[in-house]
């Protein structure tokens, strides 16, 4: 499980046969069904440039350039697929119908992608981050390995990586050589087009390895040190230089591949990017260099003249740039989990593939606070998109439906070292017929006044989208904890309940009075009808009963039941071990039960008698779950 | 019976269709249109392009064009069918020779891909893959004339086609070969076919309908009934009936497919007001028909009540009129926006979803909408669904850059222009005023802050004097007062008399209030409610005509909810109303219902001091009633006096001196008559007399305020002191 795609949907797949044979074994397996990171790794074009491959955790998707639809998924449930994330892909230089994929699970697999057939599997036993295979030497691999990091905390931190050379004999037994190693992460691994050089860059250093397979020790290139942190490298297809992008946005051309210039290579540099250059790519004739970075501007350098052409406003930070083999398409991977295919002729967007936008957002700053909300109209899943937006996603067909901006959002790149804080959507809720949507968004950067908005959106049948109806500034004096719609379907008596860290819960209702007034027939506004609190406890979660008559508000370990019509406190239920805070609260559908979960317990309350019916510890819960599945 | 009923509606509809024809001129006619069943995620539409037909596939969620296709040759598409195929048989044995990438899967997974079969003019069938965005397969060689219809079997392995040459061909879809071919009819005409859900029977329909056994290729039944060419035919889910529509026909015929007699019976027909264009049948045998003008008619389960009819009169048709009519009207001129395609959405297996998906507007840029036709609560059909919508605009579509356009369409920018914005101050409960705050109470109550503040509010009202109330006023009201005073001071008045002038406003406030209530003027109403002076409040309320009492009360209560900050003011008004008009309110029959919510709110908020508050309330009521009775007594005596004064002033208006004399007499007598507080007030009286003089002068200045009112004011004031 990689931290990268924690936001992909997962499905619990239960292997019944396995469980029957080995009841103690891990019978539940998680397999990702939809979602995932599409644009984190550079894509690969097929040789005819009509399809491209993009890795999505342990699967590879084959996508048609003309339609943007997934033509097939290279994925096999019979254990032939990778067990971990795919980090690198490349077409077999000897047979372009074959695709090689390297994964963190320590294998490289060779697929015949037209048939989704696994041809060969190489076992390395070490996680693979980058690989290179040369046309003249099959079964020989140059791989970059490192210590895999499992938890999100070490993501982006420096870790030691090394370049290894593998040679597989007839019996598929590897023979291994260490070529070089570094304490920092590998930032690039490229081969020269004639297959003579292998260039690897680490954080500050660049090493050039001349590939002579019979004798490794030829002339040794010195270790070049770059003045700033290297972010990417590229090699010119015909001229003896490499281009280095660094974290300050400078692109340096270093003429170091000619033997005469080894010791003191000539350098020239161009500088346009104000921020880190994320990717560099040369066209095959070597006349143009494409670069992209945080500014979400694609820069096309004409190398000879130094003329630059720009394609701005791509929507998000550019992660990588790929050029199709026939040189007519540029593929750009963006940080918002989308891949855009541009026509090289007029730089217009030819195709766009969009995944779950939140997948590559830094979850520590912008958490997935909305959860997965089902939109009642088309049964789409609604969740956080980019900061300040929500995304409507169709989980059945794994398609992006739309992105909805919840707050004013301008894409500007930072001017200083500190990143700009964007507003974040905290909660989304829909009325049961889908006519209304309520959102809470906030922005707090610690410098300016904290912003907190409750917004009500009405469904506009003409445009088939939600239109902002009312904005309420600072609905609570502190952060909003939950947001819930009353389950009623009558549009004139809708109500919404919010709870906040200011220890209050508020009931908002449609102002029916102005609705009736003659002047503004359509204008419906929302107002606060009731403010409640209970002993200065912090409300955790709220839930309405199915018929909408009871509102239950959970405080730390206390559940209060309110008459939702008159807002009168009806009853108070207390959990027995009261050191655990309530996490979730739900009414059962047609029976008078209230289900409450805490970290380790699950309670079921009978609301007719106000007694706790069940109380299950986690252990019990697991057992019950297992029984439920096996029966 | 049904027909006579329909007559007037018929006329109406013809009128509509005339206006509609003008709309029609700007819209390209859809030649073929079909939703991707059952989820209706895609919509395929064939329209006439310049020299060939053009296929477009829309995503119904976003309304964007996903695929666009027109063949290289000048081909015309004659039919369109959605299908699901999966390639790669279990062993992956077949290597079909399509021009592009072959699609085959590894042994375990069956990845279905959605395809559209397009019948061509030259008798071949092109299979278009929406994933690849191109033709992946062509079936040809068996038909020579244009294809009329094509259907897939459910597993995507077989397919059937029929053409104008009257042959039906069975295809092995994976190999692309013909399995068998047989003649459906002798005539060369347009044929359509449909496959039963168990895939054992097939219906072919030209002029007559024939039911075929697919194994033996024999006719099981034949139906006759339609005069013109049949355009739509469909099986019900359990294959026991089929429904058909024909060209220029406003009947939907229902045929019985079970039984053995070779001559089939049509046992029922559904009537529309106009010719039918489209047809769809749900899992629950509800039938949807689109009429020529683009109105949808839905008939409920046709199967349930028909067998009775069948037994009674075998050959007679029974007719049925639609249970639900759905139409879309233009917002501007109430003309019908045509729905050109629709289908049922059956998302759940066993539950009626009650939704249909419609495509409306122009075929250049159709708009998709989910429409509910079953009432959520009782599960009945909604008899009439009329949607009022904008006419679709923006037909100038850039055809070249679909992806960029789709990208923009799926991006919903933030737009605040139509929103109402309210700030938190309207919703915040004010902090209890500091000067009356009782620290003991504050610390001891573990209750919520609302309860605190509310009870304190009520306490404040009771205990506080007029002065303290004035101190609590917001800056705005203070400014307004200041403003008022400056206006008054222009009239050569000393500032010490400002309270007096306020009392003068008692009358105008009432008028303002009546006016505000009458015209529903919120601003004016708020102005009135801003008054906190108990005298003004009491006077205004007292003079309020009875018919405005209830509306006023309701409005104040709404304000009470809306603006917790001004709760104190509101309460004062509410209290005044209840006190002064108690007798009237008691006679209003449904008052308890009207005020129940307010009452409950009050009750719950003050629950903690229940008894104390009840007692206080009662005491309050009694005290105020006593006070009022006194005022009224005085008022009556006063009234009689003023009649006299008025008559005297009628005689001689210019003589002010006399008036003043009267006035002083009056107040003196008033003081003496009031036995309770006469002695206590005696010192004040003299002051007032002086001020009275001033006031009289002012009245003369103004010239339009009657003295009677002034005197009333005075009396009130002295009383409340």
TrEMBL record, chain A:
GO terms for biological process: positive regulation of rRNA processing; positive regulation of transcription by RNA polymerase I; rRNA processing. WD repeats lie at residues 79-121, 270-311, 473-518. Gene3D superfamilies: YVTN repeat-like/Quinoprotein amine dehydrogenase (2.130.10.10). Residues 372-614 form the WD repeat-containing protein 75 second beta-propeller domain. Keywords: Nucleus, Repeat, Ribosome biogenesis, rRNA processing, Transcription, WD repeat. One of its GO terms (cellular component) is small-subunit processome. It holds the Pfam family Beta-prop_WDR75_1st. Its main location: nucleus. The keyword Transcription applies. SUPFAM superfamilies: Putative isomerase YbhE, Quinoprotein alcohol dehydrogenase-like. PROSITE patterns: WD_REPEATS_2, WD_REPEATS_REGION. It is found in: Nucleus, Nucleolus. Coiled coil: none annotated. One of its GO terms (molecular function) is RNA binding. PANTHER family: WD REPEAT-CONTAINING PROTEIN 75. This is WD40 repeat-like protein.
Automatic annotation (TrEMBL), chain B:
GO terms for cellular component: nucleolus. This is WD40 repeat-like protein. Keywords: Nucleus. Belongs to the UTP5 family. Coiled coil: none annotated. GO terms for biological process: maturation of SSU-rRNA from tricistronic rRNA transcript (SSU-rRNA, 5.8S rRNA, LSU-rRNA). Residues 633-647 have a biased composition (Polar residues). Residues 440-471, 666-683 have a biased composition (Low complexity). Residues 412-472, 633-721 are annotated as: Disordered. The keyword Ion transport does not apply. It is found in: Nucleus. Residues 520-623 form the Small-subunit processome Utp12 domain. The keyword Nucleus applies. It comes from the Eukaryota. It comes from Gigaspora margarita. Residues 648-659, 684-697 have a biased composition (Acidic residues).
């Amino acid at each position: 499980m990689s931290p990268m795609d924690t936001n992909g949907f997962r499905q619990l797949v239960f292997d019944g046969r396995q469980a029957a044979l080995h009841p103690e074994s891990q019978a539940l397996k998680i397999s990702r069904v939809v979602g995932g990171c599409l644009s984190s790794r550079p894509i690969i074009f097929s040789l005819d440039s009509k399809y491209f491959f993009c890795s999505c955790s342990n699967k590879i998707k084959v996508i048609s350039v003309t339609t943007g639809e997934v033509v097939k998924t290279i994925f096999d449930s019979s254990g032939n697929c990778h067990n971990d994330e795919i980090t690198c892909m490349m077409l077999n230089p000897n047979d372009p119908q074959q695709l090689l994929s390297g994964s963190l699970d320590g294998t490289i697999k060779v697929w015949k992608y037209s048939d989704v057939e696994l041809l060969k599997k190489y076992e390395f036993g070490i996680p693979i981050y980058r690989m290179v295979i040369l046309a003249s030497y099959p079964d020989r691999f140059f791989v970059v390995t490192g210590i895999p990091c499992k938890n999100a905390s070490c993501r982006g931190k420096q870790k030691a990586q090394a370049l290894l050379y593998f040679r597989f004999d007839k019996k598929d037994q590897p023979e291994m050589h260490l070529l070089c190693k570094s304490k920092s992460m590998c930032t690039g691994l490229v081969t020269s087009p004639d297959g003579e050089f292998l260039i690897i860059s680490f954080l500050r250093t660049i090493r050039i390895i001349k590939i002579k397979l019979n004798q490794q020790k030829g002339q040794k290139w010195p270790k070049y040190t770059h003045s700033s942190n290297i972010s990417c490298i590229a090699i010119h297809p015909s001229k003896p230089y490499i281009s280095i992008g660094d974290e300050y946005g400078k692109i340096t051309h270093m003429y170091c591949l000619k033997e005469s210039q080894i010791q003191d290579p000539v350098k020239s540099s161009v500088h346009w990017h104000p921020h880190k250059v994320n990717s560099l790519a040369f066209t095959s004739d070597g006349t143009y260099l494409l670069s992209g970075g945080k500014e979400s501007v694609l820069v096309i350098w004409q190398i000879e003249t130094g003329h630059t052409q720009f394609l701005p406003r791509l929507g998000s930070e550019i992660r990588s740039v790929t050029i199709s083999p026939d040189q007519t398409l540029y593929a750009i991977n963006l940080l918002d989990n989308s891949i855009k295919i541009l026509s090289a002729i007029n730089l217009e967007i030819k195709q766009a593939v969009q995944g779950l936008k939140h997948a590559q957002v830094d979850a520590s700053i912008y958490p997935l606070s909305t959860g997965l909300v089902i939109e009642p109209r088309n049964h789409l899943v609604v969740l956080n998109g980019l900061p300040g937006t929500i995304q409507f996603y169709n989980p059945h067909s794994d398609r992006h439906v739309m992105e909805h901006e919840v707050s004013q959002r301008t894409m500007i790149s930072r001017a200083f070292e500190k990143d700009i804080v964007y507003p974040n959507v905290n909660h989304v809720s829909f009325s049961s017929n889908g006519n209304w949507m309520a959102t809470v968004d906030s922005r707090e950067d610690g410098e300016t006044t904290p912003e907190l908005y409750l917004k009500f959106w009405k469904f506009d049948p003409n445009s088939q989208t939600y239109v902002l109806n009312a904005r309420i500034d600072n609905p609570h004096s502190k952060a909003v904890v939950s947001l819930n719609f009353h389950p009623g379907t009558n549009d004139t008596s809708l109500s919404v309940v919010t709870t906040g860290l200011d220890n209050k819960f508020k009931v908002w209702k449609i102002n029916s009075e102005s609705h009736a007034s003659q002047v503004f027939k359509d204008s419906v506004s929302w107002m606060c009808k009731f403010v409640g609190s209970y002993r200065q406890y912090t409300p955790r979660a709220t839930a309405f009963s199915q018929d909408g008559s009871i509102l239950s508000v959970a405080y730390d370990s206390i559940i209060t039941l309110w008459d939702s019509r008159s807002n009168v406190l009806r009853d108070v239920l207390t959990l027995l071990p009261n050191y655990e805070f309530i996490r979730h609260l739900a009414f059962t559908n047609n029976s008078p039960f209230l289900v409450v979960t805490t970290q380790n317990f699950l309670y079921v309350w009978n609301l007719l008698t106000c007694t706790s019916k069940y109380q299950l510890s986690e252990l019990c819960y697991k057992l019950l779950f297992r029984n439920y599945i096996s029966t | 019976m049904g027909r006579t009923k329909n007559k007037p509606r018929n006329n109406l509809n013809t009128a509509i269709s005339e206006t509609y024809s003008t709309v029609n001129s700007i819209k390209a006619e859809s030649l073929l249109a079909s939703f991707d069943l059952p989820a209706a995620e895609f919509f395929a539409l064939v329209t006439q392009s310049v020299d060939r037909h053009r296929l477009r596939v829309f995503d119904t969620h976003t309304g964007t064009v996903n695929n666009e296709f027109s063949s290289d040759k000048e081909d015309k598409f004659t039919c369109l069918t959605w299908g699901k195929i999966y390639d790669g048989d279990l062993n992956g044995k077949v290597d079909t020779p399509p021009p592009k990438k072959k699609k085959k899967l590894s042994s375990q997974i069956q990845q279905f891909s959605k395809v559209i079969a397009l019948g061509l003019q030259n008798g071949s069938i092109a299979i278009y893959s929406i994933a690849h965005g191109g033709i992946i397969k062509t079936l040809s060689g068996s038909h020579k004339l244009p294809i009329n219809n094509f259907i897939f079997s459910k597993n995507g392995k077989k397919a059937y086609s029929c053409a104008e040459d009257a042959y039906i061909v069975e295809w092995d879809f994976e190999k692309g070969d013909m399995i068998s071919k047989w003649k459906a009819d002798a005539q060369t005409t347009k044929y359509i076919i449909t496959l039963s859900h168990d895939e054992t029977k097939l219906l072919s329909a030209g002029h007559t309908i024939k039911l075929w056994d697919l194994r033996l290729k024999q006719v099981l039944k034949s139906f006759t009934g339609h005069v013109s060419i049949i355009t739509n035919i469909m099986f019900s889910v359990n294959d026991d009936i089929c429904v058909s529509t024909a060209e220029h026909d406003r009947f939907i015929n229902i045929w019985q497919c079970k039984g053995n007699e070779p001559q089939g019976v049509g046992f029922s027909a559904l009537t529309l007001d106009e010719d039918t264009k489209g047809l769809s049948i749900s899992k629950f045998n509800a039938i949807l028909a689109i009429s020529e003008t683009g109105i949808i008619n839905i008939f409920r389960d046709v199967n349930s009540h028909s067998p009775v009819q069948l037994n009674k009169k075998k050959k007679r048709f029974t007719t049925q009129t639609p249970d639900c009519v759905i139409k879309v009207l233009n917002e501007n001129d109430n003309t019908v926006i045509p729905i050109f395609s629709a289908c049922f959405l059956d998302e759940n297996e066993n539950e009626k979803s009650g939704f249909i998906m419609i495509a409306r507007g122009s075929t250049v840029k159709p708009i998709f909408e989910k429409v509910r036709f079953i009432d959520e609560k009782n599960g009945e059909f909604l008899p009439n669904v009329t949607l009022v919508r904008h006419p679709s605009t923006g037909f100038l579509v850039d055809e070249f850059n679909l992806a960029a356009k789709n990208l923009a369409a799926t991006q919903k920018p933030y737009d605040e222009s139509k929103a109402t914005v309210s700030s938190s101050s309207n919703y915040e409960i004010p902090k209890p005023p500091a000067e009356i705050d009782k620290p003991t109470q504050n610390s001891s109550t573990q209750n919520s802050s609302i309860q605190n503040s509310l009870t304190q509010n009520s306490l404040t009202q009771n205990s506080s004097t007029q002065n303290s109330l004035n101190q609590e006023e917001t800056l705005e009201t203070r400014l307004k007062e200041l403003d008022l005073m400056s206006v008054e001071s222009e009239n050569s008045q000393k500032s010490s008399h400002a309270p007096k002038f306020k009392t003068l406003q008692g009358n105008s406030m009432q008028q303002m209030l009546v006016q505000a209530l009458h015209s529903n003027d919120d601003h004016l109403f708020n102005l009135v409610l801003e008054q906190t002076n108990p005298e003004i409040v009491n006077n205004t309320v007292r003079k309020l005509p009875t018919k405005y009492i209830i509306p006023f009360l309701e409005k104040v209560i709404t304000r009470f909810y809306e603006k917790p900050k001004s709760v104190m003011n509101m309460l004062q008004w509410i209290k005044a109303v209840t006190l002064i008009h108690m007798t009237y309110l008691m006679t209003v029959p449904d008052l308890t219902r009207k005020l129940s919510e307010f009452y409950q709110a009050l009750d719950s908020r003050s629950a903690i001091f229940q008894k104390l508050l009840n007692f206080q309330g009662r005491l309050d009521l009694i005290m105020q009633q006593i006070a009022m009775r006194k005022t009224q007594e005085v008022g009556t005596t006063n009234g009689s006096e003023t009649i006299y004064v008025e008559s005297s002033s009628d005689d001689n208006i210019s003589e002010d001196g006399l008036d003043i004399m009267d006035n002083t007499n009056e107040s003196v007598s008033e003081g003496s008559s009031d036995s309770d507080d006469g002695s206590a007030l005696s010192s004040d009286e003299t002051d007032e007399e002086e001020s009275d003089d001033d006031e009289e002068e002012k009245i003369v200045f103004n010239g339009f305020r009657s003295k009677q009112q002034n005197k009333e004011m005075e009396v009130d004031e002295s009383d409340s002191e």
